[in-house]
Every structure is written in structure tokens, then in C-alpha cells.
Amino acid sequence: MLQEADIGVGISGVEGMQAVMSSDIAIAQFRYLERLLLVHGHWCYRRISSMICYFFYKNITFGLSIFLYEAYASFSGQPAYNDWFLSLYNVFFTSLPVIALGVFDQDVSPRCSIKFPLLYQEGVQNALFSWRRIIGWMINGFCSAVIIFFFCTNAMEKQAFNHSGKTAGRGILGATIYTCVVWTVNIQMALSINYFTIIQHILIWGSIAFWYIFMLAYGAITPTFSTNAYKVFIEALAPAPSFWLVTLFVSFSAVVPYFSFSAIQMWFFPMYHQMIQWIKQEGQSDDPEYCEMVRQRSLRPNTVGFTARAVARTNRLKDRNRNHSRY
Amino acid sequence: MMTGETSSAPSGKTKSRKPKYSRFSQQELPACKPILTPGWVITAFLCVGIVFIPVGLATFFASERVVEVVDRYDQDCIPPEYRNDSLEYIQSTLTDKTCDRSLIVPKQMKGPVFIYYELDNFYQNHRRYVKSRSDKQLRSKASESDTDNCKPEAVTLSNAPIVPCGLVAWSLFNDTYGFSVKSKVLDVSKKNIAWKSDQEHKFGSDVYPKNFQSGTLIGGARLNSSIPLSEQVDLIVWMRTAALPTFRKLYGRIEVDLEANDIIEVTIKNNYNTYSFGGKKKLVLSTTSWIGGKNGFLGRAYLTVGGLSLLFAVGFIIIYVFKPRPLGDPSYLSWNRNPAGI
């Protein structure tokens, strides 16, 4: 049965380890099951769905910026960035913050997760990984890439880009757009996380810092390897105020749409876990009457499985009338 | 994942199986959990607005101070008898390519005044064009025969290597400009127009041009074979491929000031063939500021985004004043508004 189930939970105990060995998750006592489901189950669902949506977002932002450049390179297949920049995007500069999201993020504290079991329903009813959310994140990536690319190319087009009159070539423009992409996806990550420990700070800001260090290090290698990235940061970009101004401007402008959307959603249309965050922040979560009322809501007979979902969908009207009379 | 009491074993007999507690493994690290309250949102937008607007103003005015003179000359420099047959004109070696233009300086241009040539519809960023060069060969004499990537401009008919090989070098821009104002010739300085790293590390000082432009199809300038590549600054500037199909490259510098309403007589040698692909050639004279050349986009964009942020901040403040979130009202819970599901 453990093997047949979607998730098999085995309890290790005096009767031996057989159940544990054929299960997906092992716990020590039966009462830990509540915590396993309500705390870790809820967190796990949220982490995985956020992580996947974010992965789509960051790769669409990156890939679309390259694609937009092709329109200006007569679609010949010339990438905007140096080869090693392309290869290492998903390895060094944007991979570790995703670990911060997918392994450590907590949208509500463990105490609140147990206090409001209805949060578990978010997973059952697939509230955080619906098509709407996935496509929303993709559109976010699309908008970010368009903003980054067109702002960078318009700010650094044909005129001289520093005081000594030199114009920006492909290496310089490519490095600038890449810098803006790295900044934008990492700021986006900082906006998506709800839980900031020292680890998150190190991973997010460290990835950005690592990009600058990498530009310095790669630019110092002989031009046989670094081709057009040779000394691009130290000689061309760092001394030019326009590089820093363009980076600052583009990174923040690219996240303004998401930030505004997120602010409006949090304020006027909060989702369940956001409501809990509001309640926690305003100190309501200690009110026993209030919590009891909320907890009652989750003790409904058919709350899991496909049939229950179908029933809930069709019986919305009946349910509403019934519940209004209860309260 | 195991929290709670120790396993129920007689004390002293069996060791406790409870794993060692650490804040990291129990996910209880000290954390801050910021949420987007109205206060934070309004503060963020105000900060963005307050930072962006002054920066935008500074950038915009810096760009406005730059004086730029742009002159498109490729159409007007074709003599009248060749107006319908520009290709014949440009490819023939017998026609006179000299062209005289007059530019009027609109405002005082403080030296150094930078001279650029601007090309349009020239895809220096095409993949096969960018590939067609040999960096090894440019750097040292020993790699002279490393011409694999450079086809079709790799070797001569007798299989001798072309130095520098490849299409990028072969298409070197070869219009020249001479400037004079009030019949006094202006010196064009060619010092420091190429990036230092290019001159010192990418173009060798022991590499001399060889067999260059020796074929039947001439793509651009010829090179003086007694000057090493590290001093051929026009070539070095050209070989740094541009990012976009419309680009400018630095030709030289005029060190003196140019006064307002000066008439600059330019003597152009209209050698370069942009007629066969519908390209445009322009001559640009420009000063620079701390931000670079003339481009109002960055300044205007900063001002726009800063203004929008302030607008958002004001909007949020108004909404907050008139319609504050009722704190802790349970009827706002979505399962009470929409009780049957999420």
C-alpha cells in the first residue's frame, strides 16, 4: 500500500523497519503525522510551485533577451553575450537563490500552519500552481525581458558611452544587458521570498556580487579564452557612469510591474496564506475565538480527492447558503 | 522533522534517538518576514521617485549640454552624372571620390570634439561576419597561418596567408575626412581612439599586414605594411564589432574649441561602398559630457519612471486614506466571501 500510494508515510517503531524501508517518508511517532502534513506538506507544496514558476520566469527573461537581440542581428544566430556568460547563467548567477526559495522558504510559521489547517487545502486544490499563475509568471518574464532589452539598447545605442568618446560595441552592450538580467531576476527573487534569514541574503546578494567578481576574473584571462569579454568590466564598464546608471534604472524598472501587482494583490485580494500573514502581523492570531472559528472551517467531510473537488465546484451555491446560515 | 519529547525508553538504558537540535535543521533560524504592507509599498515607491527624479534631471541636462552635428553625405556625394548608377561610381578606380561638405556649428563646442563615422544597415553583428577573424593571428607573428575561421578571406590564390585575415578586417572602413575652419586646417588626432586593452593585448606589435586586399574584390581600406597592427588604430577600432546595425565608430579627435556659427569645411574621400546594400554613411561631430554622448533617452526614462513611482505612491496614499484595510475583519476572509472553495 505504501508503494502504491502517491506518498507513503511509514512509522518506525518496535514492530520493525519494514514500513520505513518501503515508504517515501518515515516518521517516529504517529502524532508527528499532523506536523508532517500541515507544516511540511504545506511548505513543500508552496516551495515547489514557487520554484518551478520562478525557473520559468528567469529562463524566459534570459532567453527572450537573447531572442530580441537576434532581431537586430538579422537572425543570424549571433548571441548577445559571450559564450561562457551564456553557459554559466544557470550555474552560478541564478541557481543558488532558487535553492533559497525551494529549500528554505516559509510563508507562514509552523505554529500558524498547525493553527490554520485550511492552508493545507491550498495544495489539495492546486491554488498555487494553476495555469493562471504559471502563465502569469511567464508573462512577467516576457515583460521583464522586453523592458531590459529595449531600455538597455536605447540607452546605449550609437552615441559615446563614456567621457573619452568611445562607443559601446557588442561586448560592452552584451555585458550591460546581462548585468541587468542578473540584477532583475535576483531582485525578483527577493520580492518572492517571504522568509529572510542570513542564508537567503548570502545567496541572493552573493550571486549578484559573484557576477561582478566573475567579470573581473574572466576578463583577466588571456583574450584567447575571454575573447570579447577581456577586461570589459575593469576597463570599459566600471569607469563609465552610464553603465551604473543604466543598471540601476533597468533593474528597478523591470520589477516595478511585478511589485505593483504584488502590492495590489496583497492589499485587496490576498490569498489564504497572505491572510494568515496579515493576521499574524496585526496580532490577531492569538485570538482564540477567531482561530477556533477559522479552524472549524476546515473540518469538512469531503476535503480531499478528485470527487471532493468536483463536488465543491458544482455545489458552490448550495454551500454558500448553508454556511451563511451557520455564521 | 522529529520534534517533541524523547522516545519512551527507560532512562540510562537506551540512548535517546532524538536527533541533535540545531536551529538550521529545525528551520528556526532568526529571520525577518517582511510583508508588503501599505507602509512599505508607499515608502518603496517614494524612495524610487525621490532617487530617480534628480538622477534623471542630472542625466538629461548632461545630455542636453552635448553638442552634436550629424551630416549624411553618401547620397549627396555622388556626382550628378552617376546619380542613377552609384555602384558603378563607387567601384570604379577612375572616378574622383573627393567630396566637399560644409557643416555649421550650432553652439560652441568645447574641445576635444570627437569625430565619428556612422553606418546604417550594416550588420557587423552577423554571426558569420563576427566569426570571420583570427584573434591568434592578430596577436602574434607565430600564428600567421592560423586562418581557418577566416574563409573566404583566409589565403591568397597561391595559398599564402592573408594578415589580417577574415571579413571583418577585409571590410575596413576607408572614407577619410579633412577639416578646416576659416581656411585653417584642423588637426585630427588619432591618439587614444582605440581601447588600451585592444592595442596592448589583442593586436601584436610584431604583426605586419601581408597580402592584404590583394584579391580581385576589394572590401575596404588598404593597410600600410610597414606599420605593426598594434599601431593601426583605425583597424583596431573597426575590429571591435558593433552591437547593432546602426553604429558609430570613433575616427579621431579635434583638440581645439569650435565656436558657434563656425562653418567647417570637410573634405571627404567617399571611398566606402555602402550603396550595394542600401546602407547610409554619416559624419558626426560631437562633444561629450560625464555621461557620454547625446542621448536623452536615459534622462527621460529616469524622469518617467520616477514620476510614475511618485504617482503610484500618491495613489496608494489616497487609497489608504479613503479605504484602509479593515484590520482583522473576518468577513474579508476569502473563504467567508466564497465559502465553498478556494
Describe this structure in words.
- The complex is a heterodimer of chains A (327) and B (342).
- Chain A is mostly helical and 327 residues long.
- Helix content of chain A is 69%, strand content 2%.
- Chain A is built from 16 helices and two strands.
- Chain A has helices spanning 18-21, 32-72, 83-93, 96-104, 110-115, 121-124, 131-155, 170-192, 198-220, 223-226, 232-237, 241-268, 272-281, 288-297, 305-314, 316-326, and strands spanning 9-11, 25-27.
- In chain A, helix 1 (18-21) links the parallel strand 1 and strand 2.
- In chain A, helix 2 packs parallel to helix 7 and helix 7 packs antiparallel against helix 12.
- The longest helix of chain A has 41 residues, at 32-72.
- Chain B has two domains: 37-66 and 290-320; 70-287.
- In chain B, strand 4 and strand 5 (184-186) form a beta hairpin.
- Chain B has nine helices and eight strands.
- The longest helix of chain B has 28 residues, at 38-65.
- Chain B is α+β, with helices and mostly antiparallel strands and 342 residues long.
- Chain B has helices spanning 38-65, 86-91, 127-131, 135-139, 167-170, 196-202, 233-239, 296-322, 334-337; strands spanning 68-72, 98-104, 113-120, 176-181, 184-186, 247-254, 263-269, 280-286.
- Chain B is extended and about 95 Å long.
- Chains A and B meet through helix 2, helix 7, helix 8, helix 12 and helix 13 of A and helix 1, strand 3, helix 3, helix 4 and helix 6 of B.
- Chain A: One of its GO terms (cellular component) is plasma membrane.
- Chain A: Its main location: membrane.
Describe the structure in brief.
The complex is a heterodimer of chains A (327) and B (342). Chain A is mainly α and 327 residues long.
